[in-house]
């Protein structure tokens, strides 16, 4: 997603500096012309050096995280270090610079936990796993940074984002990528339980332009938005679409039901009040 954000920023004529540790992304995803450095956001000295040598930055778009929700129970220290401590390193520098007009952060609908969908921004966050907890903690830190230091932010809670340039090799995140990899390798699709879990799979090129535009619109500052598709599908539906698009018979490896939100999709009425022209791509189209 970060590379798509950079593309849209370049199209707007912005000078863009991008960083990533390449633990989940690839250099060949960089298609537009911007300054890129391999950098780990958990290294506070490296982040300070970035601001000193490349800054100051008037906007920060922060998408770096290890988004492995189910796995986060077993990698707690790694999860919090990457998703929380790394985020606070960026927030600290944005506050200290005093020129950052907006800090745009991609949180997650994981902050809602297992609540009745459609999930609304007015719902009380109840994250059920360390990944969701870390995302919500960053949201709270940004709220504090605004109250104490005046740092403006926009928080997005995306869900099940897929699309070009995604890493399909990670077995712990992004079921779209997992199913695509299985299709390419001729393997059965792993489905937990009966496959009737519902999700709204969201195409990356639908949401990236909105994330970019929000950083330049003062009416969006200090708002929280759900962002993603309204097209709700079951995991079994997804498996059928992927197998059909790859032209292969569907083979499923039915696995024991696991602890997860059975139904997770969001209400986007607030977002549509701000961005009424949002592009909406169907699952099969995406």
Provide an overview of this structure.
The protein has helices at 2-11, 44-54, 76-97, 130-149, 175-185, 204-214, 235-245, 269-274; strands at residues 17-20, 35-38, 59-62, 102-106, 153-158, 161-162, 189-192, 198-199, 202-203, 223-227, 233-234, 252-255, 263-264. The chain is α/β, with parallel strands linked by helices and 286 residues long. A four-stranded parallel β-sheet has the order 3-4-5-10, with helices on both faces. It has a three-stranded mixed β-sheet with strand order 11-8-13. Strands 1-2 form a two-stranded parallel sheet. The mean pLDDT is 95.
Descriptive labels:
four-stranded parallel β-sheet, three-stranded mixed β-sheet, 286 residues, alpha/beta, 36% helix
Describe the secondary-structure layout.
Elements: H1 2-11, E1 17-20, E2 35-38, H2 44-54, E3 59-62, H3 76-97, E4 102-106, H4 130-149, E5 153-158, E6 161-162, H5 175-185, E7 189-192, E8 198-199, E9 202-203, H6 204-214, E10 223-227, E11 233-234, H7 235-245, E12 252-255, E13 263-264, H8 269-274
Parallel strand pairs: 1-2, 3-4, 4-5, 5-10, 6-9, 7-12, 8-13
Antiparallel strand pairs: 8-11
Helix pairs in contact: 1-6, 2-3, 3-4, 5-7
For the biggest β-sheet, the strand order reads: 3-4-5-10
Q: How many strand units?
A: 13
Nearest-angstrom radius of gyration? Answer: 19 Å
With helices defined by DSSP (H or I, 4 residues minimum), what is the helix count? Answer: 8
- Give the helix level as a range of percent: 25-40%
SSE topology string: HEEHEHEHEEHEEEHEEHEEH
Main β sheet profile: 4 strands, parallel
Percentage of residues in DSSP E strands: 15-25%
Return the average pLDDT rounded to an integer.
95
| Distance between the amino and carboxyl termini | 15 Å
